């Protein structure tokens, strides 16, 4: 259960060490544009040789191979007929007639790089860049400008790869291409390739931003402003003018969106173990001690939380979880939020996964405010229905914490749509629900288990199977999540590996969804009723206040069960926990 994740995630892995800042996003693409002979290939090759986090989008072309060019590496060399057929079949993200040949970027080429968790680098012409911009690919667009057209001609001739006719065509086209820098909103930055070292340093800076999942111009360089630098270049002005990417420049999104930047990072002065055992620390979070330091959107439960964790863990084997890596899905709100905060505060390294960047930023700030060290906590924007984004998780973990891998996976994310009825629901709602709840859980499980297998360190998978009876496709998928745990357990046993698998099934959770079904609250939008068991919406609204829900289960109850599962000694296999609310005398939840 957990987040009603509705904001699509993007991009990929972290090549930059997640240097204690911001929410991690998968890489954006890097689109490199510029006239023939300006040095795009030279710069791109250098970038890719220096850092394997970048992958080249291998284009198709109808031009014949040059000496030394390898099919499938430099280009997919093809015929006009074959290429036109594939374009007609919709296989290309963009294509263009360039210097009398057809060039194009296939969807597969970009997908292959993204699936490998790399930042995809495209080397394309201006027409292609316009199409890619229109297609909405998450990317940073860089124009490489020549210091002068004379120098461009000099380079083209010096390269000695093209016929005189081709050189003439390319130079003629170059003038028009350089003009394109004036198109508002097309490029995010311009690098004038005069001195190769300077240009390379600038490219590295902007490439790092793409690797970190950023898009758009960097701070102080609003879209469209590259024009000045490029115009200077087009007019023959020398110098490495750049509207962006000062060497060492930081990340735009990191600065703009990360609440951590500008905030003095708070370091834990003690280990997780100390935090768990420190009554003083916990006391401040107990009810009656003022506002929750967790600054949770669901304050009633958050205030109880650390006490619950402490109580659960006391006397059991919690200590072995200190420093281990727990991935919590659906961490943007509800149970996921509570799990992420509790486990981190109790000494685990937590990867909080959500589609909703804004929620993760709030969560991150709450963690910092609570005194958690940034390096023990990693928010990752990822869409569980996208294989490339899920499979990037182990790599992201290894980058943040070298030598570590996923030790614990808590499959909590789920979507519950109000239009998910099996008798009258929409197909779209079903697909949404099945994709996130079933496919997403399966993908996350496979990646986590493989991460454990590679390190031969078997950990724990916990599936949160909460479903309200009568919630249609949501309930059906949660049954599937439960069955998946059972199957996983059997597979692990058959292979003789000590993977631990548990399910937690809370019934009648104090959730927005539950109260909506009980007629205590009305859904305000389709997504609002998604699985956000203790989200802010769950505690708002006059109807909710009229009907006290104090005896229903809380997110913290689910956390407590998780902690208990994780604390159980080696010889105790906790397979399934079902939690029910305490009924009032009349048999109805209070
Ligand atoms: N800053 C520079 N100073 C001098 N020569 C350069 C510089 N950058 C690149 N070159 C040279 O310019 C030539 C053209 O470079 P390159 O092949 O990388 O261009 P390109 O933009 O990739 O061309 P195309 O679009 O046709 O593939 C090469 O011989 C390269 O070594
Ligand atoms: N629109 C696209 N343009 C592309 C693609 N791949 C390369 N190119 C551009 O073509 C010229 C010429 O390349 P060359 O290898 O023949 O010198 C170059 O400027 C590239 O940017 C593509 O997939 N789409």
UniProtKB/TrEMBL annotation:
<dbReference type="InterPro" id="IPR036291">
    <property type="entry name" value="NAD(P)-bd_dom_sf"/>
</dbReference>
<dbReference type="InterPro" id="IPR020590">
    <property type="entry name" value="Guanylate_kinase_CS"/>
</dbReference>
<dbReference type="InterPro" id="IPR027417">
    <property type="entry name" value="P-loop_NTPase"/>
</dbReference>
<dbReference type="Pfam" id="PF00625">
    <property type="entry name" value="Guanylate_kin"/>
</dbReference>
<feature type="region of interest" description="Disordered">
    <location>
        <begin position="240"/>
        <end position="272"/>
    </location>
</feature>
<dbReference type="InterPro" id="IPR017665">
    <property type="entry name" value="Guanylate_kinase"/>
</dbReference>
<keyword id="KW-0067">ATP-binding</keyword>
<dbReference type="InterPro" id="IPR008145">
    <property type="entry name" value="GK/Ca_channel_bsu"/>
</dbReference>
<feature type="domain" description="Guanylate kinase-like">
    <location>
        <begin position="27"/>
        <end position="208"/>
    </location>
</feature>
<dbReference type="Pfam" id="PF00106">
    <property type="entry name" value="adh_short"/>
</dbReference>
<keyword id="KW-0547">Nucleotide-binding</keyword>
<dbReference type="GO" id="GO:0004385">
    <property type="term" value="F:GMP kinase activity"/>
</dbReference>
<dbReference type="GO" id="GO:0005829">
    <property type="term" value="C:cytosol"/>
</dbReference>
<keyword id="KW-0808">Transferase</keyword>
<protein>
    <recommendedName>
        <fullName>Guanylate kinase 1</fullName>
        <ecNumber>2.7.4.8</ecNumber>
    </recommendedName>
</protein>
<keyword id="KW-0418">Kinase</keyword>
<dbReference type="GO" id="GO:0005524">
    <property type="term" value="F:ATP binding"/>
</dbReference>
<feature type="region of interest" description="Disordered">
    <location>
        <begin position="515"/>
        <end position="548"/>
    </location>
</feature>
<dbReference type="InterPro" id="IPR002347">
    <property type="entry name" value="SDR_fam"/>
</dbReference>
<comment type="similarity">
    <text>Belongs to the guanylate kinase family.</text>
</comment>
<dbReference type="InterPro" id="IPR008144">
    <property type="entry name" value="Guanylate_kin-like_dom"/>
</dbReference>
<feature type="compositionally biased region" description="Low complexity">
    <location>
        <begin position="240"/>
        <end position="271"/>
    </location>
</feature>
């Amino acid at each position: 259960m957990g987040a009603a994740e509705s904001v699509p995630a993007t991009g990929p892995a972290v090549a930059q060490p997640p240097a204690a800042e911001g929410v991690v996003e998968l890489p954006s693409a890097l689109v490199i544009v510029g006239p023939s002979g300006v040095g795009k290939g030279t710069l791109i090759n250098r970038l890719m040789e220096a850092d394997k986090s970048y992958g080249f989008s291998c284009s198709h072309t109808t031009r014949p191979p040059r000496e030394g060019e390898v099919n499938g590496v430099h280009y997919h060399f093809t015929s006009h007929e074959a290429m036109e057929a594939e374009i007609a079949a919709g296989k290309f993200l963009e294509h263009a007639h360039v210097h009398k040949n057809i060039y194009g970027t296939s969807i597969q080429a970009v997908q292959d790089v993204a699936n490998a968790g790399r930042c995809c680098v495209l080397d394309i012409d201006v027409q292609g860049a316009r199409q890619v911009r229109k297609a909405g690919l998450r990317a940073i667009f860089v124009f490489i400008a020549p210091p002068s057209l004379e120098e461009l001609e000099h380079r083209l001739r010096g390269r000695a790869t093209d016929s005189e006719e081709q050189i003439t065509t390319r130079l003629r086209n170059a003038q028009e291409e350089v003009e394109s820098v004036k198109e508002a909103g097309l490029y995010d930055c311009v690098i004038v390739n005069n001195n190769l070292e300077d240009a390379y340093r600038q490219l590295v800076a902007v490439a790092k931003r793409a690797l970190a999942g950023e898009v758009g111009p960097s701070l102080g360089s609003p879209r469209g402003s590259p024009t000045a630098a490029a115009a200077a270049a087009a007019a023959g002005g020398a110098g490495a003018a750049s509207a962006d990417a000062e060497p060492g420049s930081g990340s735009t999104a990191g600065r703009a969106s990360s609440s951590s930047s500008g905030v003095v990072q708070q370091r834990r002065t003690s280990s997780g173990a100390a935090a768990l055992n420190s009554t003083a620390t916990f006391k401040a979070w107990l009810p009656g001690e003022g506002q929750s330091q967790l600054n949770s959107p669901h304050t009633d439960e958050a205030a109880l939380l650390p006490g619950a964790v402490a109580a659960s863990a006391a006397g059991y084997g919690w200590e072995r979880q200190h420093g281990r890596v727990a991935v919590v899905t659906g961490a943007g709100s509800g149970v996921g939020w509570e799990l992420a905060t509790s486990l981190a505060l109790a000494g685990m390294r937590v990867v909080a996964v959500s589609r909703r960047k804004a929620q993760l930023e709030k969560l991150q700030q709450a963690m910092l405010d609570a005194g958690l060290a940034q390096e023990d906590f990693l928010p990752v924007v990822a869409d569980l229905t996208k294989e490339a984004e899920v499979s990037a998780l182990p790599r992201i973990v290894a980058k943040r914490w070298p030598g570590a891998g996923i030790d614990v996976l808590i499959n909590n994310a789920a979507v519950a749509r109000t239009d998910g009825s099996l008798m009258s629901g929409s197909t779209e709602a079903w697909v949404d629900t099945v994709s996130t709840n079933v496919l997403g859980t399966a993908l996350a499980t496979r990646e986590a288990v493989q991460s454990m297998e590679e390190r031969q360190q078997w950990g724990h998978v916990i599936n949160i199977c909460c479903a309200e009876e009568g919630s249609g496709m949501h309930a059906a998928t949660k049954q599937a999540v439960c069955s998946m745990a059972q199957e996983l357990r059997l597979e692990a046993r058959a292979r003789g590996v000590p993977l631990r698998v548990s399910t937690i099934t809370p019934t009648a959770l104090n959730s927005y969804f539950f109260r909506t079904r009980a007629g205590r609250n009305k859904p305000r939008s389709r997504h609002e009723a998604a699985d956000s068991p203790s989200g802010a919406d769950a505690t708002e609204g006059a109807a909710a206040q009229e009907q006290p829900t104090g005896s229903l289960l809380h997110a913290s109850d689910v956390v407590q069960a998780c902690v208990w599962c994780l604390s159980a000694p080696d010889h105790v296999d906790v397979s399934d926990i079902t939690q029910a609310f305490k009924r009032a005398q009349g048999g109805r939840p209070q």
